[in-house]
Design goal:
The chain is α+β, with helices and mostly antiparallel strands and 312 residues long. It contains seven helices and 16 strands. It folds into two domains: 144 residues, no CATH class; 133 residues, Nuclear Transport Factor 2, Chain: A (Roll), CATH 3.10.450.
């Protein structure tokens, strides 16, 4: 052990250097806002039933049957977009089967918007900011008034059901904006309706067998499109779809159907096909729950690598 030497001479240390005073840090302010690259297609409806298509592809189906509450749905829409001249088609029906659709629709309210948000940023109903904002009930009431005036003048009322509205918008240029023209406008058209019906039966059989992995394999083009639309890894969407199918949708059961019930609907000039069933039913749909609600899985298909697959 080394003992301290208390008798050692003191050592003069050099004087401490004077440090310059600290300057206050510059206030850099809040971080720059993240680009609002996520587009949603939003519908808020009351007193009617609506379908909303974006660039000729179905995205929203709502039925507002509760007289005390409007229905709201705002799914993400990036995989359906072009940089500009995006077309929104809104189809409006009265509830039930009224004697005069005009009476039934006179009090309806229909808002259709395209809110934009940054990645991870929530949206609130009707809150914006928007690249498209429309209150269609004002035009609907004007159409009803014009129809009644024509009828009073002895002319045809000329009031079709559904009532259809068309809206145009450009995507937010930040980002850059999504661009699926290669699928929506430039791909080759498909016209083999019999093959489409055969494919619908293949999907039915996978669903009835509760084969989530088999359905996910058919969904690979859709998974790739979503990954591209949101700049996320494909595994994120693949795992989410598999979990939803295996734990929520397929265990609820799927209504069986026959081949002659399949109704292929051409979209985007035949480049994509919407597979439906009579009376507007989704191809894959669960039986009604105790409260009357159903789970719907809309199916949009197109040829990919020589075979039909689910693309949206």
């Amino acid at each position: 052990m080394i003992e301290p030497n208390y008798d050692a001479p003191a050592v003069d240390l050099p004087p401490e250097e004077e440090l310059p005073p600290l300057e206050p840090a510059e206030d850099e302010g809040p971080p720059p806002p993240r680009p609002k690259t996520i587009h949603h297609l939003e519908a808020i409806v009351d007193g009617c039933r609506v379908e909303v298509l974006l660039n000729d592809l179905p995205l929203i189906a709502l039925e507002a049957t509760d007289p005390d509450q409007a229905e709201h749905f705002a799914p993400p829409a990036n995989p359906y977009l072009l940089p500009s001249d995006n077309m929104v088609e809104v189809r409006v029906w009265p509830l039930g089967e009224p004697e005069d659709a005009r009476d039934a629709l006179e009090a309806a309210e229909i808002f259709v918007n395209v809110p934009i948000a940054a990645r991870g940023e929530p949206i609130a109903p009707g809150a914006g900011p928007f690249v498209l904002e429309a209150a269609l009930h004002d035009e609907l009431r004007q159409r009803i008034a014009d129809s009644r005036q024509r009828e009073a003048d002895g002319e045809e009322p000329d009031f079709d059901v559904p009532q259809t509205f068309f809206l145009l918008f450009d995507a937010n240029p930040e980002g850059p904006p999504p661009d699926f023209a290669d699928e929506l406008q430039e791909a080759e058209a498909h016209d083999d309706v019999e093959a489409l019906k055969d494919y619908a039966i293949h999907l039915r059989d996978l669903a009835l067998a509760q084969d989530a992995d088999g359905l996910v394999a058919e969904l690979e083009p859709k998974i790739a499109a979503y990954a591209r639309a949101y700049a996320e890894p494909e595994a994120l969407f693949r795992d989410d779809l598999r979990a939803g199918l295996a734990t929520v949708f397929l265990p609820a059961g799927v209504e069986p159907f026959e081949r002659d019930e399949v109704e292929p609907v051409s979209c985007c000039g035949g480049r994509i096909w919407w597979l439906r069933r009579p009376d507007g039913k989704a191809l894959l749909e669960t039986p009604p729950a105790d409260d009357g609600s159903r789970k719907r899985f809309e199916i949009l298909v197109a040829p990919r690598d020589g075979a039909l697959r689910i693309v949206r």
